[in-house]
Amino acid sequence: MNEFSWKQNHQSSTSLARTGIILTPHGKIETPAFVFCGTKAAIKSLNVNEAKKSGTQIILSNTYHLMLQPGAEIIAKHGGLHNFMNWDGPMLTDSGGFQLFSLGHGSVADEIKGRNKNSKRKKSLLKITEEGALFKSYIDGSDHLLTPERSITIQRQIGADLILVFDECTPFHVNKEYTAHAMERSHRWSERSIEIFNKKSEFDSQSGSSGRQALYGIIQGGIYQDLRDISIQFNIENDFFGLAIGGSLGSSKEQMHEMVKYTASKIKTKQPVHLLGIGDPIDIWNLVKYGIDTFDCVSPTRLARHGSALSRNQNGKINIKNASYKNDLLRLEETCNCLTCNNYSKAYLHHLFKTNELLGFQLLTIHNVYFMNSLMIFIRNAINNDMLEEAEKKWYLI
Length: 398
Hints:
Elements: E1 5-11, E2 18-24, E3 27-31, E4 33-37, H1 48-53, E5 59-62, H2 63-68, H3 72-77, H4 81-85, E6 91-94, H5 98-105, H6 108-112, E7 125-128, E8 133-136, E9 143-146, H7 148-158, E10 162-164, H8 176-197, H9 200-207, E11 214-219, H10 225-237, E12 242-245, H11 253-267, E13 273-275, H12 281-289, E14 294-297, H13 299-305, E15 308-310, E16 317-319, H14 339-343, H15 346-354, H16 358-384, H17 388-395
Parallel strand pairs: 4-5, 4-14, 5-6, 6-10, 10-11, 11-12, 12-13, 13-14
Antiparallel strand pairs: 1-2, 2-3, 7-8, 8-9, 15-16
């Protein structure tokens, strides 16, 4: 398989939800799909074989982190990220633009949940100019300038199948004037990303790892509908394989849903649509109805490391560290067929976390990854059968 393609299989008769297949040189992705974060070339506490057994289709890694450690050159010497981490399925890399937000302002989740508004933590982002973004390395304090050209060069050396243009992810608390200014600069960076991406022969001779890649554009504009309209038009006019919805989507989940719904409804394109950094199972049910095809989020693995297992109960989670599970001999989730649920009791998992055994991280991560993949299969089947509303009710009743 040498080419990329996107095929829509079924369009819901009651919403913008759809199923489809993204074909890449490293295999296919059935959509809607969840993209698991292997930020530093590893899904935390989980090897790729277990990830695949749990139904994982695609992994995301982070350009900013990998350029600092181990460096794109050493990844290229391995023949690319697939060989480096021994993953033979599709991969996606973000451009490093998200770090302009998280290192300078805090995370998207912090904004949505109202955390760290008065944080005094030292910022790693030094300045943003037309040329690019100047960072201070969190590893050794050295300065690095990340530009559209360098971001794409690094992504080609890393060699993921799907890559993103370089952009600035603006936070919620900045005003409209700054948001508009940043969006326009992101569009100029996007044009530079496209230009350098198209210089394939130059990079192929330098890196030897990229092979065929497909480029996604990113829709910015913050919480302002008129700015989102401008960014949508810009991205549609360019020949991107797919489109990603980025930037701040609001200070609450309600506002986030509103903005995603508005933006996705305006895209009106046959390209696959990715939502950057959002992936709570409860949210996904609505977001697929707005026309989102793929999601990425660190929450499944992060929750696992903090002792939370995703669940089909009404709360959506099980805190295995709760004392009520100390003597619970039942499996974690009765309807789940993951390795963890088939072999271990809640009492055992509770014990692992109370004694700080690393195996606990792995077993809950296996469950959460399997849970997310099972959820996406369930959603795909529901869309194909035009029963998405009924499926959501059934998911939480089983």
